[in-house]
Amino acid sequence: MKRPVFRFAPSPNGELHLGHALSALTGFELARRLGGRFLLRIEDIDTTRARPEFIQSIFEDLAWLGIEWEEPVLRQSEHFADYQAAAKKLEDLGLLYPCFLTRNELAAFAAANSDARDPDGAPRVTRADLDISDAERARRRENGERFALRLDMQRALSFVREKTGRGELFFSEWDGNSQCRRVQASPERWGDVVIVRKEIPASYHLAVVVDDARQGITHVTRGLDLFAATDVHRLLQVLLDLPEPVYHHHRLITDATGRKLSKSARDTSLRAFREAGMTPQDIRRLIGF
Q: Which residues, including other chains, have CB under 8 Å from residue 35's CB and lie 6 or more apart?
């Protein structure tokens, strides 16, 4: 059998917290148990928020936890051309279209369509909602107006039906032990997701599937908060002829109110725990590992 390949892929826009420790340790220990490889990937496509000091902090925190990874470490900011090539393939298939919505316009759309939300709670936009002709899109594009590229979800699903001969998409969800179940993906609930952002030649959805394929990832371990995103990732894998990994979505670390820990909320970082005198064993106990 092919040797399993796991990865941990943090974004360097803040310091790691206990949730990251759980995710990194889950992948690392599963790789070690199965005799697999463990890779580290720096997801820094958002160059406006990524900071070199946060990358260094990631290395230090993981090493302190006793986690080892293969070199070299892949940095997404060095591979924009690959994401552009993948987007070009989707565009050549007629599956992408330019969206000129500004932040204010998107907020207004969300206010007027409060029941149209994607699984993350963001406005669920479709091509029909935008009320703009293809000719007008072409004119505005030629005039140099900034735009994002969205996936025409209905066309994409039709393409998949023609390509595979079936209308359903599935992914494999592994429990980390002996059980693996097939889950039906529902990418349509996301609407026309952004594939290329206005300011960045990629999106999380596009970059993650391209890089998982590039690195030969066989097992994607990540938090339950990304379970629904697998709908989109499985769709993109089929559209781009990329291999299908197995997924393991682990539990989340939450605070006393049930809120998921996050960098934006400035939850206590691993560095702060370390500087307070805690040990890696203390961290493992804290996260119930």
A: 3, 4
Which of 2.40.128.30, 3.40.50.11030, 3.90.800.10, 2.40.50.140 would CATH assign to domain 80-207? Answer: 3.90.800.10
The ranges assigned to domains in the chain are 1-78+253-289, 80-207
Phi-psi region of 277 (alpha: psi -120 to 50; beta: other; left: phi over 0): left
pLDDT at 267: 75
Q: What is d(CA 286, CA 43) in angstroms, rounded to the nearest whole number? A: 26
| pLDDT at residue 260 in the model | 79
Catalogue the long-range contacts made by 163-166 (C-beta closer than 8 Å, 24 or more residues apart).
163/238, 164/238
Q: Which CATH superfamily is domain 1-78+253-289 in?
A: HUPs (3.40.50.620)
Rounded average pLDDT over 26-50: 96
264: confidence class by pLDDT, cuts 50, 70, 90: low
- 42 membership: H or E segment, kind and range: strand 37-42
Complete DSSP assignment for 73-84 = PEEGGG-HHHHH
pTM: 0.94
Is it the case that residue 75 has pLDDT exceeding 80? yes
Record the tokens describing residue 163, joined without a space: 């390509």
